[in-house]
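FORM 7B - TANDEM STRUCTURE REPORT

SECTION 1: FIRST PROTEIN
SEQUENCE AND TOKENS:
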Amino acid sequence: MTAFVVAGHDGEDTLPVSVVTPSQTHSINVRVAKPNLWDYPDTDALISFDTSLLIGVRTADCVPIILHAPDIGAVAAIHAGWRGSLYGIADRTVEQLCVRGADPTLMTAVFGPSICWRCYEVSEQLAADFDRVGFAHCLHTAPNIDPLTHSTPDPSRPHLDLEAVNRTRLLSLGLQPANIIASSLCTRHTITDGGMTMPSYRRDGTEQRLVTCVALTGD
């Protein structure tokens, strides 16, 4: 049994498929998606064992993470903003899969586009919070040039690599480095060859969202 991942825009654009998404609140709550159930309040990660379901999360700078646990025939979609990254939404999801018999060394994780560390300026307090729980290596000084505006960022403001935080968490839980697939796309500054941009709250304050989804096949 395999999984496939797709992504699209939500908001003014309409997705060509029906996607089950939770009502995200930057929690660390994980639920198992069920057929014919569309309401998952106060939830930021969904797990599916059902080939009839396409599950996903909505993001506009936060980190979307897709997990595949092949040994138990499960997939998961995770929304990890700074709160979820700090408090461990990825950990909680992997743990829920392991409780159901999954071996983390067999899992695959795929990161969707999110804001890169060069674009993600944070407060000194938030940086201290991540430092305190062991993510000092994910904190950086400001880059010389802002990749979007080409201006000089405030050198006193720290920058945070949210994808690196979640990669570190997944590795600590037993996922293998070769099975963690990074994204090279930044929602704030990446412009595609066709001149398109992705939804970015930090850039535009947009209400649009990138929808990153996954489904099991019946193979």
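SECTION 2: SECOND PROTEIN
SEQUENCE AND TOKENS:
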Amino acid sequence: MYTPAHFRIDDPDECLDIVERSGAGTLVVADPDGGFEATLLPWIIHRAPNGAVRLLGHVAKVNALVRIAEQAVPALAMFDLVDGYVSPTWYPSKAEHHQVVPTWNYVSVHVHGSVRVVDDVHWLRDQVGRLTERFEDDMPYPWAVSDAPDDFIAKMLKGIVGLEFHVDRVEGKAKLSQNRSDADRAGVIAGLNAVGDDELWAAMTMAEEERGWGG
């Protein structure tokens, strides 16, 4: 990932928090035939007391990824928290010198490590249960795996395999107009609010408050 110093997220824990908040990320592995296999998947993050980090997921048994990752292989998982277009018309500096261009702001984390297939029904049942709890938590009437008949769940589990991603390192980038003036950043925040890009607006507003980019 290309990360200029003013956009780089240096804290690994902050990167992992972004992974957790994102929920889903794209797993990329090299195909032995010379290509790449990429799959968007929801993940559960597991942080051990000793600092080791794993991502736990699952895919359909027919996914080409299963053949590639029968044994642990190098992998990359990409998590994009927010992103959106930034118009140069939002910069007050445009009126001063017109030396402005469009750009794209975003918060993204790349996770490097290795991934392997886990074909174990008990492991799978635990993983899908934890995944369900993670995303059903905010529902008014949360669904649980136990709500479905046992024989139905057993049948569904036969069609998937688990994925265990061992994290070696993470790199994060928050491109949120840090390279612009205070006035231009305020203009971007106002512009995002005006067009209804609530997620990117919230990310930039929080960044201003937490990191003091606004002085």
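SECTION 3: OBSERVATIONS ON SECOND PROTEIN
The longest strand covers residues 103-118.
Helices lie at 12-22, 64-68, 94-97, 121-136, 150-157, 182-195, 198-211.

SECTION 4: SIGNATURE
Preparer initials: ____
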